[in-house]
Design brief:
It is a multi-pass membrane protein. The protein has 519 residues and is α/β, with parallel strands linked by helices. The chain folds into 2 domains: 234 residues, no CATH class; 262 residues, Nitrilase/N-carbamoyl-D-aminoacid amidohydrolase (4-Layer Sandwich). The chain is built from 19 helices and 14 strands. The strands form 2 sheets. Strands 12-11-10-9-8-7-6-5-4-3-2-13 form a 12-stranded mixed beta sheet. A hairpin with a 5-residue loop joins strand 10 and strand 11. Helix 5 packs antiparallel against helix 6 and helix 8 runs parallel beside helix 18. The radius of gyration is 24 Å and the shape is globular. About 1% of the residues have low confidence.
């Protein structure tokens, strides 16, 4: 690897570049290995090496070459990093193995265009420096949270969720962590290219992380801790929505909860009740009576049919929701972001022939999006900011839901991706959201990973995966605001924009001239 770096970095001095195929293949490889920096592998150093190789591969390359180098990196990143989609498409979607792989490859080609456009813009308009490469990286990570509704996965900062650089998260969020990682990765390349002055900014960033680790934005409330029980039913995904299995599902959760009544809060995971509230009112009433009788709050995932909205809109309004009831508890949260291929099928009318088994699954079609600003759930005089499944991948959405909250709760059903890296990557995002907002996160799932995560983003306790389980914990309520809660992503986005404006203003004119001469 060092030999490759030497050849790549010194090629400009020799007035002869390596053949294009070398940086192309190296970028493909470096994108493919990046996901091993994340959970469940935790080879964090790959989060430095992977973007460093891409940065080095772009040296002295034309903008069109940079486009394809970036595309190769992006394809490798998404094909390997999101290959957990194969389980939902092939196993539960009843799609052939060949077609499933083809669909993931197509997704990787589309998502890879983010990196392709990023590297094209970098080589077309900006000088070769970490101070332009890193800001562009951040803007394109940010774009993945909203372009085409967003697919905010595989961000480089997640590799440091429980490591040294995560102390930047309460200040600037995941994009602040990613910014620092990319600067350090590019600085490594510059130092190997004998530009040793990059040791100084690298040291400053590392010292900044050390200093930030001593900052305290939140503190425990005086109230006693909340006793919480999480119920993991381990319902197989291929049985979950079958009509003949619905009552059995309810009995599994009810039986697991029998020993937990009397605790402050019992949480069931996403869609643990596989029927609309209108179809199961006697059961819900019985659970509410039991909760009130024992002084317990009950929070559960449930499909919700809003009859009032349906009359107004003149068509059924269904929501994936979390409902709170029981002793001193109430509230309903409607999911705002729906997950493609894990919860609904994009362009389902066109793809019905590709994914026939998913068309009869109520969780895969017909859900509406919840309103942007919803009140926290009220549980035992505590405010619970809610997030359902995929929503926790959206930093700003979770930040809004965390506002004015004492705790954060997320329910999920990752049975779609059993046995893959997907649930662990998902858990890592929950950890980062807890760190960003300075709140304990209560995470209840159907098959795992069910866990309690403290306000530092550390997993305090977790249940075994792929088996029925009960997880108990005593959780303190937190108060106060992190810097990220107050200012969102704006500080890192504004700094990135300023750096790009400076880079564009002082870019070498030969960048424009060489581009025009090739047209």
């Amino acid at each position: 690897m060092r030999t490759y770096f030497d050849k790549l970095l010194n090629s400009s001095q020799q007035h002869k570049q390596l053949p294009f195929i070398y940086p192309f293949l190296i970028s493909l490889f470096s994108g493919a290995v990046f996901s091993f920096a994340l959970a469940p592998y935790y080879y964090w150093w790959l989060a430095i090496l992977s973007p460093a190789l891409l940065y080095a591969s772009l040296r002295k390359r034309s903008a069109p070459q940079a486009f394809f180098i970036g595309w190769a990196y992006g394809f490798g990143l998404w094909f390997v990093g999101a290959f957990w989609l194969y389980t939902s498409i092939h196993v539960y979607g009843d799609t052939s193995a060949f077609l499933s792989v083809l669909m993931i490859a197509f997704m990787a080609l589309v998502m890879g265009l983010f990196t392709a456009l990023q590297t094209w813009i970098y080589r077309r308009f900006f000088p070769e420096t970490p101070l332009t490469f890193a800001p562009l990286w951040i803007f394109f990570e940010w774009a993945k949270t909203w372009v085409f509704t967003g697919f905010p996965w595989l961000f480089v900062g997640y590799a440091f969720t429980e490591r040294f650089l995560d102390s930047y998260a309460p200040l600037f969020g995941i994009f602040g962590v990613s910014f620092v990682v990319i600067i350090l990765a590019c600085a490594l390349v510059e130092i190997l290219n004998k530009r040793v002055f990059w040791i100084i900014p690298s040291a400053i960033l590392l010292l900044g992380a050390w200093g930030a680790s001593y900052l305290q934005f939140v503190e425990k409330k005086a109230e006693k801790s909340l006793s919480v029980s999480l119920i993991q039913g381990n319902i197989p995904q291929d049985l979950k929505w079958l009509t003949e299995y619905q009552i059995k599902t309810l009995m599994i959760y009810a039986n697991l909860s029998r020993t937990e009544w009397g605790r402050d809060l019992i949480v069931w995971p996403e869609s643990s009740i596989p029927m609309f509230q209108t179809d199961i009112e006697p059961f819900l009433d019985a659970m509410k009576v039991q909760a009130n009788k024992t002084g317990t709050a009950w929070v559960t995932g449930i499909p919700y049919w809003d009859l009032k909205e349906s009359q107004i809109e003149q068509h059924p309004m269904y929501y994936n929701s979390i409902m709170a009831s029981g002793d001193e508890s109430n509230g309903l949260y409607k999911k705002q972001r729906l997950v493609p291929f894990g919860e609904y099928v994009p362009l389902s009318g066109w793809l019905s022939w590709v994914l026939p088994a998913l068309q009869n699954d109520p969780s895969m079609s017909g859900f509406s999006r919840g309103a942007r600003d919803q009140k926290p759930l009220n549980v035992k005089n505590h405010a619970l900011g809610a997030a359902i499944c995929y929503e926790v991948a959206y930093p700003n959405l979770t930040r809004r839901n965390a506002s004015q909250s004492d705790y954060l709760v997320t329910v999920s059903n990752d049975a779609w991706f059993t046995g893959t890296a997907g649930p662990w990557q998902h858990l890592q995002m929950v950890q980062m959201r807890a760190k960003e907002n300075g709140r304990w996160f209560i995470r209840a799932t159907n098959t795992g990973v069910t866990a309690f995560i403290d306000h530092h983003g550390h997993i305090v306790k977790q249940a075994p995966t792929d088996q029925s389980a009960i997880l108990r914990g005593e959780l303190p309520a937190m108060q106060g605001e992190t810097l990220y809660m107050r200012f969102s992503d704006w500080p890192v986005l504004i700094v990135s924009l300023l750096l790009l404006l400076l880079g564009w203003r002082f870019r070498p004119r030969k960048v424009d001239v060489s581009f025009k001469s090739r047209r």
